[in-house]
Design goal:
Largest sheet: 6 strands, antiparallel
Order of helices and strands: EHHEEHEEEH
Shape: globular
Length: 162
């Protein structure tokens, strides 16, 4: 089991749940051994900056920034890249720490966040920089969500105060 987050450039992401799901499927249709998807330079400046910040806490298990002994550390992650996104897969026991650090780093870099490993919410930076849940993209029927900030791990940790 794992906890997955995807951070992305919100300026190019579709605004509807159905279009977002199709866009994400297209960009993440990679093979497990696709070496090209291991290079953070493929993601663009902001997703790469997010990755560089996250690897201080969750070193990569593979790719150009991986180091020997990654599997001996308490925390680590698998990262994959496509323009304009980074997909990170964390151990399930690291869910809370990964969500907290990942979301805060996304806020600093102006990135959207898709809570793939949780309830499927998509969070976009608002005008004041605070993230707002805009839709839910799940494996089942897709549904638009107007106020999605009250449930799920990220909703509980990062609810917009107002």
């Amino acid at each position: 089991m794992s906890f997955d987050l995807m951070v992305f450039d919100p300026a190019v992401a579709p605004a509807s749940a159905e279009a977002f799901a199709a866009w994400q499927r297209e960009l993440t249709a990679w093979h497990e051994n696709d070496e090209m998807r291991l290079d953070p330079a493929k993601a663009g400046a902001a997703p790469k900056a997010w990755f560089m910040e996250m690897i201080r806490h969750f070193p990569p298990k593979d790719g150009p920034f991986s180091l020997p002994g990654w599997d001996q550390r308490r925390t680590w992650a698998a990262y994959r890249f496509a323009e304009p996104l980074c997909w990170a897969q964390f151990r399930v026991e690291d869910t809370e720490m990964a969500a907290s650090l990942g979301f805060e780093a996304a806020r600093r870099h102006g990135l959207g966040v898709h809570d793939i490993g949780g309830d499927g919410r998509v969070w976009i930076p608002g005008p004041d920089g605070a993230h707002v849940a805009t839709m839910t993209v799940s494996r089942g029927p897709l549904a638009e969500v107007r106020d999605a900030s009250k449930k799920g791990l990220l909703g509980g940790l990062f609810r917009r105060k107002g």
